[in-house]
Amino acid sequence: MKISSIVMLAASFLLIVVGIVLFANKKRFEGENQAGKYSAKYIQSNAIGNIFIGFLGTILGVLDNFVNGNSIKIAFVVIIIGGSIVQKLVGNKISK
Fold first, then answer.
1. Are the C-beta atoms of residues 44 and 26 closer than 8 Å to each other?
2. Which helix (H) or strand (E) holds 77?
3. What residues form the membrane-spanning segments (predicted)?
4. Can you give the three-state secondary structure of 36-74, one letter per residue?
């Protein structure tokens, strides 16, 4: 297995874990954060976004093991950055 595949899979796994933890604790933000910076909907959208990006990254990490070249690595970086931008935009709409 290539080092780049391992790094991509590790990053994707961490995104999935963070998404699951956020999703499991979204109820906590409803009660504690009344004045709050983060609503439960905001946390839920971030959790789902992290899980989705993590699954896409996992697919690309597996593909990177079989495909030569940098196209998969570039796609991975674009998906991570693009997903983060989309999450920020969705979060801004939800929090308004």
1. yes
2. helix 71-95
3. 6-25, 46-66, 72-90
4. CCCCHHHHHHHHHHHHHHHHHHHHHHHHHHHCCCCHHHH
